[in-house]
Specification:
Blueprint: E1 2-5, H1 9-21, E2 26-29, H2 32-39, E3 46-50, H3 58-67, E4 76-80, H4 85-93, E5 98-101, H5 106-120, H6 124-127, E6 128-131, E7 134-137, E8 142-145, E9 148-150, H7 154-165, E10 171-172, H8 173-181, H9 190-203, E11 210-213, E12 217-220
Parallel strand pairs: 1-2, 1-3, 3-4, 4-5
Antiparallel strand pairs: 6-7, 7-8, 8-9, 10-12, 11-12
Helix pairs in contact: 1-5, 7-8, 7-9
């Protein structure tokens, strides 16, 4: 799935048509608010992001994407107006994977997307995280317990990924809120406890891997150390 954030209706529709013709699934968004709403339920393979948008510019959106653990690894191609070299430099410095200068051809766009996906898609062996009988695939977002698939929400999955990528590390509730929900999230730390409770339940026997560290937060490990 490719997300296209572009406020010009004709350009956005043309981008989506070209992507569909090239065999990609694609969705379009007029502004950053609609885009971030969609990210709550679906994680795209790549984002085509225009810099000039009506509510929040593309540079600000890119900063937020890179600051959140659940979106930090999504490839982003920035669309910049002709002659705005400063925007290109800022975008690349902030972690954009490529840029296109408007007006650009649809064939060039598809070609750039394919090239970025080839560079950024992890190899299968690098995408697997294992702990005891628990397995998480970062490419397919599939979680297995004893070979059986477990259905997780996006936040539950991201919590599990953070733990499995940092086995044995202790995280405070505030740190988990910042990493999984984002630095601008205004909720309470109780949110973390609730999600970890449901995550433990869904993982069954592997739920015991998530340890409560009294007065601090949580860590994940397959065995208990003395």
């Amino acid at each position: 799935m490719i997300f296209c954030v572009e406020d010009d209706d004709s350009i956005r529709e043309l981008m989506i048509y070209a992507l569909h013709s090239a065999g990609f699934e694609a969705k379009g968004f007029v502004n950053g608010m609609d885009f971030f709403d969609a990210l709550q339920t679906e994680k795209p393979q790549l984002v085509m992001l225009d810099i000039m948008l009506p509510d929040e510019d593309g540079i600000s959106i890119l900063k937020k994407l890179r600051a959140r653990v659940e979106t930090a690894d999504i490839p982003v191609i920035m669309a910049t107006a002709k002659g705005t070299e400063y925007d290109k430099v800022i975008g690349l410095d902030l972690g954009a994977d490529d840029y296109l200068t408007k007006p650009f051809g649809m064939m060039e766009m598809v070609s750039r997307i394919k090239a970025v996906l080839r560079r950024t898609t992890p190899k299968e062996k690098d995408s697997l995280l294992r702990m005891g009988s628990l397995e998480l695939n970062r490419t397919s977002h599939i979680v297995l317990v004893d070979g059986e698939r477990v259905q997780l929400t996006l936040k539950e999955y991201e919590l599990l990924r953070v733990f499995m990528e940092n086995q044995g590390r202790v995280f405070t509730r505030d740190h988990l809120l910042e990493m999984v929900w984002g630095v601008d999230y205004m909720g309470e730390t109780r949110t973390v406890d609730v999600h970890i409770g449901t995550l433990r339940m869904k993982l069954g026997v592997c739920g015991d891997y998530i340890k409560t560290v009294r007065g601090v937060g949580y860590r994940m490990e397959a065995t208990v150390t003395a």
